[in-house]
Write a structure and sequence with these properties.
The complex is a heterodimer. By secondary structure, chain A is of the alpha/beta class. Chain A has helices spanning 55-62, 85-91, 102-105, 112-123, 128-141, 158-170, 188-205, 216-222, 240-245, 250-258, 298-302; strands spanning 4-18, 25-40, 44-48, 70-75, 78-79, 95-98, 176-180, 209-213, 225-230, 233-239, 308-311, 314-316. The chains are: A alpha/beta, B alpha/beta. The interface between A and B is large, with 37 and 41 residues.
Chain lengths: 320, 336
């Protein structure tokens, strides 16, 4: 379990905001603003947060698509930010990204067979028949059959497309997978099937993955650890159990409260967020959550809280 | 008082592959001030229902085979196109669309677009284009009273600094704000019925919760009825007074919210609720897939996937049965 494969150390990624005419840098959007964590082999980490909080930028930085402005991303013992483009391309075999919208990420002119063979053709030197064998095995692993090989993406339903997207990633046996909202936009009954499949695959292939989602129910089911992101920073991180049982940060509590759950709390007892998130190019000083926090105090406006360990393995950044 | 009463509604689409039976014998009604949730998976006919009520189905392929939609005493299916436009659409029945971004015109400011609603739908009769030329419209979009009314509308849906917001373009607003402007526009004519077609799907959970609260408050205030189309049972639980579940074009269960979630009588309802991720870690899936509506299974359309199917389910369609007060189920073998 303690075989660490990914280490993030104070990763920052800023995007410049430029003036209209001279294109001078007049500010920056702090998409990821100092994120540190580690992931061990076989671990599933859930990453939760609203749209625009920097989840996707963080994941792209891990994949080497962006270079961090500060801090470093270490995959096993290699620092990703220092690799050449060629090396990163090779590394991509081990770090894979599953897109949110699988319908849009599969080429409509290619058959499923072709789509599944492509990663093998790029990254491996298997013979034609070995490839065929592998493709079939993977297709069966995700619960589809041989007849589907010659079909085109438009012939499938949303749930099946997700399966194909998964199969495509799994052909290469990656060591780390990033799932971007694997169940967004699916019906609950289909979502349940995909989650079941993910749990199965996790067992058979001993996958390590980061699961981005804003569906907390999903995160709770699949991940062992959960990190909550708000405006580029992790505000709370810990084992999934402790986060859901005993959320410390007000933002996490509100997030948990805002999941509409049949049979759950009704509105009157719920915490609601006060405002909308501030723009990431103009983050207020002090705690970045202050304008929406129902428990704000004076200290929050002055000082930015640090991420501190409150109970073993449970980190929170809040003054309260 | 019943605002909308749908009886035995059957709608089909004619396609190259055959006839798609999108709605099959739907009966339901909405009372004044009631929020009715229409829940179901993709392709079960929820949106067709909304479109049929507003009579905006594609004319080339869709056909209403039978049934009636009585709205405030009149059968909407028999109204002329002109009367529909002048009195019903956008006046007494309004729509909150799923994706607020594509529903706004990107080249006009929010204020101008809200003003259009007021001009065409709130004041006397529709204004013809001749009197209000394009250039005039662009040059002098706002005048005294109307402007203050638009600002008032935006204030009502809690848009920050609403007197500035009227000059903003849709892309300058966040998704939650856009959806709130949509709600403002839907509520403005004080309609009797609002059809909300998955209004929270495109939003984050936290923002979605805010929008749902707002919609609830406003409709309570004006005693507006809402047909709330959603695939999220959780959202339905939050906002609705009554929940109706559809499956493959047929109605399965319809009950007051509390009774619905407490008793979960229909096997499909139970299947749906069990497939939500729950904290205990257990998740149960419904076997099989949604059937094609071109050749749907006979009898109850859910029987091939149902765990409690009887022999009769294959042959006969279950009638509507009231198993608890006000709790209706289409099933021969419900959980009791």
């Amino acid at each position: 379990m303690n075989d660490v494969i990914l280490t993030l150390d104070g990763v920052k990624k800023y995007f410049p905001v430029r003036s209209r005419f001279l294109k001078r840098r007049i500010g920056s959007i702090k998409a990821v603003d100092g994120v540190s964590f580690t992931i061990s082999r076989g671990e599933v980490m859930g990453l939760v947060g609203e749209s625009g909080c920097g989840k996707t930028t963080l994941v792209k930085t891990i994949m080497g698509m962006y270079r961090p402005d500060e801090g470093q991303v270490k995959f096993k013992d290699r620092v990703i930010g220092e690799l050449s483009a060629e090396e990163i391309r090779k590394l991509r075999r081990q770090i894979q990204y599953v897109y949110q919208d699988s319908a849009a990420s599969l080429d409509p002119w290619w058959t499923v067979g072709g789509l599944l063979r492509e990663p093998l053709a790029i990254h491996t030197e298997l013979s034609r028949s070995e490839m065929e064998e592998k493709v079939l095995a993977i297709l069966q692993a995700v619960g589809m059959s041989k007849e589907h090989l010659n079909c085109y993406p438009h012939e499938f339903s949303g749930g099946q497309l997700r399966r194909i997207g998964l199969a495509r990633i799994l052909t290469l046996n990656p060591e780390l997978i990033m799932f971007d909202e694997p169940t967004a936009g699916l019906d609950v009954s289909v979502q349940a099937k995909i989650l079941e499949l993910l749990a199965d695959l996790k067992m058979t292939f001993n996958l390590t993955y980061i699961m981005i989602s804003h569906n907390l129910g999903v995160v709770r089911m699949v991940s062992q650890r959960t990190a909550v992101m708000y405006l580029g920073k992790i505000v709370e991180m810990g084992t999934t159990e402790s986060i859901f049982k005993d959320p410390k940060h007000p933002y996490t509590r509100i997030l948990l409260d805002s999941i509409p759950e049949p049979g759950g709390k009704k509105k009157d007892q719920k915490l609601l967020l006060l405002d909308e998130p501030p723009s990431p190019d103009n983050i207020p000083p002090g705690c970045r959550f202050q304008n929406r926090c129902p428990f704000r105090r004076e200290k929050c406006e002055m000082e930015e809280p640090l991420l501190v360990e409150v109970t073993p393995g449970h980190l929170v950044s809040c003054h309260g | 008082m019943v605002v909308l009463d749908i009886k035995n509604l059957t709608v089909v689409y004619h396609t190259d592959q055959g006839i798609v039976e999108a709605l099959d014998g739907i009966n339901f009604s909405i009372r004044r001030g009631e929020i009715v949730g229409l829940v179901g998976e993709s392709g079960c006919g929820k949106s067709t229902m909304g479109k049929t009520i507003l009579r905006v189905l594609p004319e080339s392929s869709a056909e209403v085979v039978s049934g009636s939609i009585h709205f405030q005493g009149k059968n909407l299916l028999e109204l002329g196109e002109k009367e529909m436009n002048d009195r019903v659409r956008g006046r007494s029945i309004t729509l909150i669309p799923q994706d607020p971004f594509v529903s706004f015109n990107p080249v006009f400011s929010i204020g101008t677009q809200m003003l259009d609603i007021m001009k065409y739908k709130l004041f006397e009769g529709p204004v013809t284009r001749g009197e209000e030329g394009f250039f005039r419209r662009c040059l002098h979009p706002f005048s005294g009273e109307m402007k203050s009314q638009v600002i008032q509308m935006l204030k009502r849906v809690q848009i920050p600094s609403s007197d500035q917001a009227i000059y903003k373009y849709p892309h300058e607003m966040s998704g939650g704000q856009r959806q709130r402007v949509m709600i403002a526009m839907a509520v403005a004519p004080q309609p009797s019925l609002i059809i909300a077609d998955e209004p929270t799907t495109a939003l984050d959970a936290t923002i979605g919760a805010q929008v749902v609260e707002l919609l609830k408050d406003l409709t309570r205030q004006f005693q507006t009825s809402v047909l709330f189309i959603t695939h999220d049972l959780g959202v339905a639980y939050e906002i609705c007074d009554r929940v109706t579940v559809m499956y493959a074009g047929q109605m399965m269960e319809s009950a007051p919210t509390d009774s619905f979630f407490m008793k979960q009588c229909h096997p499909y309802t139970r299947g749906l609720l069990d497939s939500l991720p729950n904290p205990k870690g257990g998740i149960q899936t419904i076997p099989g897939d949604i059937p094609s509506l071109i050749n749907p299974p006979g009898g109850c359309r859910f029987h091939p996937r149902c765990l409690r199917a009887l022999d009769t389910c294959h042959q006969k369609r279950p009638e509507l049965a009231e198993i608890f007060p006000n709790h209706f189920v289409h099933c021969f073998n419900p959980y009791l």
